[in-house]
Amino acid sequence: MNREPWDDWKAAWRETPPVDVARLRRHVDGKRKRMLCFVGLECLVSLLVLVHLGWRYATVNDGSLLGLIACGAFLVVATQLLMLALRRGAWRSKSTAPADLLRLTIRRCDIGRRLILAQWICSAVCLVAFGAWFALEYPALLESMGRDRLDFAIKVNIAAQIPVTLALAAWTAWYLPRLRRRREMAQRLLAELDGE
Amino acid sequence: MNRAKRDRLFADALRDHAGLVARVARSYEADAARCEELRQDIALALWRALPAFRGEASLATFVARIAHNRGIDHMLARQRDPQGAALAEDWPDPLPEPVQRVEIGERQSRLLAAIRTLPLGMRQVVTLALEGFSHQEIASVLDIETNAVDARLSRARRRLRDLLGDPS
Hints:
The complex is a heterodimer.
Chain A: H1 3-14, H2 21-59, H3 63-87, H4 98-145, H5 147-194
Helix pairs in contact in A: 2-3, 3-4, 4-5
Chain B: H1 3-28, H2 32-49, H3 59-78, H4 98-117, H5 120-131, H6 135-142, H7 146-164
Helix pairs in contact in B: 1-2, 1-3, 1-5, 2-3, 3-6, 5-7, 6-7
């Protein structure tokens, strides 16, 4: 093997501009604080939702609303558990070897696709369940709330559901191809490693 | 690992191996702004991974492993290979003579462009070898056999020589 080009490449490679270490540290500190705030906020929101549902459950006397509140709290917890169950094995690789990380990426992409599918199925099930509950409870709700208040509640519900569903559909249309491309890239890189 | 020890290790790693981080980042990203982002990502990943550092291997090999893994993540996020962009103006470090600076800049530019065209396995091995890691250390960083390092490096050198020509 000719040593000359290698030594020359090595010399060229080692010529590095100075790195602003203080700036790197500032970035890491800032990012850590933001991540901590985000996790804290997420926990706080979940807690507030559960506390609110608990408070509503304790103070509301209407039997039909009590059932809805209990269903809501159950759905919050069940959704979280379902997401955790689906993600099992997706967080950590067996090792930090590049090939294992690429295999993990492929697995995460597959899980991501399953999560999206599960999300749509859950949404559809919730919608059907709510529709069925509403149909069953309609006479009681009409009696307790009156037609005007009930109509208003239905309109608010529809006005809130439509943009959320459209946004979710748009996000799915954007995210799924991205997930597919990421998976293809990971497979190609893995082939580059395995093909050695 | 307690917070003080982690902070101290992190400071040591950045002080001693910021150059390694920058060079590995350059092998995964040609665009200067994105390369800076990748350096920052590597630094953050390093801080997060430090509790796993047991001191069985050197800090340099630990940093190299984190840097390469973040490089792969970066490629996956970008969903494209890194070649194509021009050499950043901040590369290389100011040298005494402008002519010499241009010469080294050009040599680095060609070398980096050639390295970025290598398949991932060869690229990782060759950048670590250029950093001065032994074959055993490279095997440890990439979690592969030493034989595989030898084979990949030999092929990578041949490929680089074909791409860059023999300057001697």
